[in-house]
Amino acid sequence: MAEGKEAEQVSTSDSDQADFIEPETPVEIKNSMLVTTDSYEHIDYQDLESPVYDSHPSGIIHAIVRSGSVEESTDTNDEELHTQCEESNEDASSNELSSKEISDVTEEVSKPEVPELNSAEFDEDDVQTPEWRNQKKHVFILSEAGKPVYSRHGTEDKLVTIMGVMQALVSFVHDNGKDALRCIIAGEHRFVFLVKDPLILVGVSRGQDSTQQVLLQLSYVYNQVLSVLTYSTLHRIFKQRRNYDLRRLLSGAEKFLDNLLNMFDSEPSFLLGAVECLPLDSVIRDMIAQSIVQHAKVKDLVFALILANNKLVTLVRMKKYYLHPMDLHLIINLVNASESFKAAESWTPICLPKFDSSGFLQAHISYLDESCQTCLLLLSVDRESFFTLSDCKNRIKDRLLKYNGLKAISDSLTRTSYSIQQCGISDLRHFLYKSRSTAQYTSPELEAPYLSQEEQERLFGLYHYLHHRIHTTARPLKILYSVGPHETLLGWITQGFELYAVFGPLVTKPAAIHAINRLLRWIKKEEDRLFILNSVTF
Amino acid sequence: MSSKGNITLLNFFVFNSTYGPREGEEDKKIMYFYPPNTDIDTKIKKIGLCEAVVKFTETFSDKPCESVHTQKTRQIYFEPEKEFWVVMTVSIPYVEKSKDGSQYLEYHEEDVQDRVYKAILQQAYRMFQFFNGTFYDVLTCNDNDVKVLQKRLDHFYSRDSLLFLLLLRSGLDQDDMRIMYKYLTTSLFPTYLEQELQGGSVTSPARMTATHAGVHYGNSSDPLYRYIYFNHMNLAQKTTVHVDNKKSNVNIPVETLRLLSDISSDMSKNCEDGETIVKTVSDSWIVGKKSDEREFYVVINQKNSNLIEINDEVKKLCATNFNSIFFLD
Fold it and tell me: Which residues belong to any copy of the CCZ1/INTU/HSP4 first Longin domain (chain B) (predicted)?
């Protein structure tokens, strides 16, 4: 009966978005956005390279500090300047050397043909080992002077030559015709360049990623660097010494970069620009949020959030301010990459570049449960508030224990995600559904045939392909249906959502469409549990 | 929009690094360079960058470098014979826009598809080869005198006004529609050209252009759809996506043609059979099918159709026009 009705819907649909069913957006926004987004929906990939998009300091932190308590507002910038001074003193002794180095480099730069690239030069480098060469994705960061800052694989010291070549290519193209090098293609390999003054970021991928997708990853990497240093510090350092060895300041931060890059390979959230929420009964989620609102009413607290297994449980924010998905991803990465938070309550500075790249927020980070799965983060502009926030944490924890909030979280976690069978759709193998207005997505757990590492990577490649083909700037699509040798893919974009679905290769079109209709209905029914629809503020 | 930049040919050159290995001898690497009035320093610089790029990519990849994308240009690489590189650079089209009172140029890099220009580059080489033999043939027959090769290249590409330059100049300057069409008929279906060349049916460039312009008209009584069919095995082809050079009668928008090329490129990466159906933001549908060596593309402008209806439409089309041919459903 129901099927007949759906079939009817399919064939009679005539409005713009009714390619499959009625144009109703399954997820409605009741309140203003949760995480997000004004600028975000336009993460027009072209913008990634434009200087406008460069995370310029927004000055928000300043504004909050000033509007709040003036008493002990030690200015963030002062502090940075202070650190900076120490830094330069320390370097003073090597100043002469450095100016010589600079002139060496400029000499190199002005040589148009790029330092002679006899293969002999690469000999003692890491570049020679097959393991290094065969890596799926390399990411390099270097300074504009060509100094190695970071390499995902191999040690930077051994990659001086190849990074020098990268720098030379970038500056040669720049100097000849005020142009900008964007990408080089050789066989399966794609070399993508992103210049974010004073850094050059290079991604070398032989996967399915498009140039834009690699660019997005490089911008994340850049933002991760800002998150550790702040935009202001990074610029000040290189303004003073063009030849500065940034590894000194980033030592200890490599693990965040490594972890971020590993997450790209397994988490769809970056590709989608969306966050996954932990499925929870909305009553319980509200209770958790209210616990925070009631027990963390502290001046200067900007964001408070709970994460469980990289998923968002709840987010409470200061009224005027939003948390951009890109910033939230950096917070998730911080928690994901650090074992130390499990040992004790921590107090750590973090810069959220989309929020304000000029300074740090202070994060109080603690786990609420013995098994260290549920992590509470309290982000404040007041750097003296550790003990206050620690008290808040205890009260929140007590309340969550009392009302079984923590148990609900751990129950949801043990159920991991949800099985595709729960959606009751037999032909469907896997899907990603993004609610565009809230920048959140949902996806079932991976099941056969996507259990092996290899198959998972292949599935991921398919999603990258779908996403890329649909979002090509010059030729965007509304629907892409593609039958391949191993699976059938469907991508569908409307104003409200983006859906990427994977079927077996033999599914018929009517069956696939039938499945999609049922899936959308199921998501609609479950939306309270899968998404955070209410924006909670202090 | 006050100003606009089209795709134009910036340069085209052939070099072999083994001929000028020492410093100060870089000019010896140059086999051919267009435009010919370029000063020697520029030539050497351009080739130097290509050499650096090739070396750089070899650090990671076993396959040769294919293209370099910059904000303003696209450079296509082709190494038809060992150490001989043929390189072409075209400009990226742009439009001038203004935002908050200040002017800036918006570059449309996705309008330049590597695959299309690679095909042109290969064609340029094949044409030389057709009339002169390979670069190494030329050298072998002339006591390895590189000057002879340089002369031949110069003669072929500059003096004979060749099709290739015509193609590039006219094609790129004002009408990249034609180039897309050319691409679709000759390179998307490369065996077609291959056959033309080896079968000896080509006697002059003029004849060749004529051949390419002569397109089979399919049943175009229904204006709702256009299609292209090609069988790589027997070189049969049938199309209603035609461009009449004289009237510049364009059937489908160039954006759609580019999308067609995208789809074809995606499907060719997958060696096996497949089907792709897309709906564009302007609500036209494109269906691409690949089955054995057959490729088939349909463009349907029926705004209010859904996927199932489009599928039925294509089935009907196949039944009437390609009665006996099996396609994956």
Answer: 10-133
